[in-house]
Input
Amino acid sequence: MSKEIIMTADAPAPIGPYNQAIKAGNLLFISGQIALVPGSADLVLDSIAAETEQVMKNLQAILKAASAGFDKVVKTTIFLTDMSLFAEVNEIYGRYFAVNDSATEPVYPARETVAVRGLPKNVHVEISMIAVV
Output
């Protein structure tokens, strides 16, 4: 099976030895995204809502670079530094999964949410995804 690197200037450049995403066969593995502003070293940390929105926009840009959208996501992992942030992150996260034409309810991917002691650059949320493309 061949691997294809997916990179876009519309999402933050990796801050370590990894790629934004790897396409292997019909699967897309998206590295964990934090609230970095693409093309800069700036972080969006004004609130957990603003931070989560930036994370989701970064994921959306990577999905788009792979000719996919949130409807193709089958698995996510959310990392939080504090589970008291869960409800607000969950509400914003859920908005990005649109109702598809054949369903009356949003089709959410499988997911786990994990509390961690710390995340890169002292952010509060990081999200990774797997999609079918």
Notes: The longest strand covers residues 73-80. The domain at 3-132 is CATH 3.30.1330.40 (60s Ribosomal Protein L30; Chain: A;). The longest helix spans residues 48-65. The chain has two helices and six strands.
